[in-house]
Structures are given as structure tokens and as C-alpha cells.
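User: Just a sanity check before I run the rest of the batch. Below are the C-alpha cells for the first item. I only need the designed sequence back.
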């Protein structure tokens, strides 16, 4: 490929990937719609490859455009980190951190904390993944894993961030059966695929 991609090209592709329409991309770039249209056509001709497919949902990026947009986001983050460093005159925490947790931890513990945490580190990118399976940190499944447990694995360090309460909820007519024979009533709960879950341990003991 003879054509040398510029920062303006990456910004153009990123705007259209984010906006999905010429009008929204034009707003993001603060130019008119015709400029975006001509620029994309010119770039596709220079690259000799289609970057977007037009359909009812708007401009859908090809794999090439998606890859260019990812590089553009990295450049955007690097510029933001440089600006912050110049403004604050100190080392800036930047980069991408991959964090995994359960749905319960995400909604009850993590999201409220991130609302205060993330504005303090505008150059930091956080990738969140929710799963009940244990992440293998040595294989780099994630950089940080948040899980609820009273017994952290021996090779990891557990730190108490709070407590979690579990409740048995049901219809009033189940109350007597619950005290006499819990196995006689239907249950909706995690199964044995989560053997360490508090509710699973309680059901087995009770």
C-alpha cells in the first residue's frame, strides 16, 4: 500500500464508526456532511478497500475500519494523557485495565465506586467483563478479578471490601414447609456448577 495514513484519516474513520451516520460524524468532527462524504470516498479510493457498508442502520464499519478506529482510540487516549500530564505537571495513570467480576459485585459494589474513581483518572480505560467463573490471572484472563469469598485461594491475597447478605424469599404458604422440610418445596437458586456459592452451601447443609 503506497498511501500513508494520517491522523486526520483515523479521526475521520473513528467519527463515522461512533456516529454511524454522516450527520453525526460531521457533528463530531465539526465539519459539514459533504466534507465527511467526500473524505471517506477519497480515503477508500486511496486505500483500495471499502471501509463502510451502507444499509438502513447507517454506515457499518468493515473489519478494516474497525481496526483503524481502535488505533484511533489509542491515539486519542495518548493525546488525552499528554494533555493531562502538561496540565497537572505529574505522571499520569493511563492505559487499559481489564477487570472481571460477577453481576452482583458489578451493580452493588463496583459501579458506585467507579463513579468516584474514574473521573480522577481520565486517561485510564477500563474493560469490564462479568462472569461467575474464576479468572486465571497468571494466564492474563484479566488484570483484576473481584469475587465474593470467605476463603481466598492460597496463591492470592484477599482483602475485605464489605459483606454480602443472602435472603430466602418465597410465598407465605411455604414458610411452614421451610421450617419442617425445606426439600419439599420448589427452589430457584444457583446449582452445583457454583459449589462455593453461599446459597448452595446453605441448601446442602439444610
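Assistant: Here's the designed sequence for the first item:
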Amino acid at each position: 500500500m503506497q498511501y500513508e495514513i494520517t491522523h486526520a484519516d483515523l479521526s475521520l474513520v473513528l467519527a463515522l464508526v461512533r456516529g454511524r451516520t454522516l450527520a453525526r460524524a460531521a457533528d463530531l468532527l465539526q465539519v459539514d456532511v459533504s466534507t465527511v462524504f467526500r473524505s471517506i470516498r477519497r480515503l477508500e479510493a486511496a486505500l483500495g478497500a471499502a471501509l463502510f457498508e451502507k444499509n438502513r442502520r447507517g454506515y457499518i464499519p468493515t473489519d478494516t475500519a474497525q481496526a483503524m478506529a481502535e488505533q484511533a482510540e489509542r491515539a486519542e487516549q495518548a493525546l488525552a494523557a499528554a494533555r493531562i500530564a502538561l496540565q497537572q505537571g505529574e505522571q499520569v495513570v493511563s492505559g487499559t485495565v481489564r477487570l472481571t467480576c460477577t453481576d452482583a459485585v458489578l451493580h452493588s459494589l463496583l459501579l458506585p465506586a467507579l463513579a468516584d474513581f474514574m473521573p480522577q483518572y481520565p486517561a485510564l480505560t477500563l474493560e469490564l467483563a462479568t462472569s461467575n467463573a474464576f479468572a486465571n490471572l497468571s494466564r492474563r484472563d484479566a488484570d483484576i478479578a473481584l469475587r465474593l469469598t470467605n476463603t481466598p485461594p492460597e496463591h492470592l491475597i484477599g482483602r475485605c471490601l464489605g459483606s454480602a447478605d443472602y435472603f430466602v424469599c418465597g410465598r407465605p404458604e411455604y414458610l411452614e414447609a421451610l421450617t419442617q422440610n425445606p426439600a419439599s418445596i420448589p427452589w430457584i437458586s444457583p446449582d452445583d456448577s457454583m459449589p462455593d456459592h453461599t446459597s448452595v452451601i446453605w441448601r446442602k447443609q439444610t
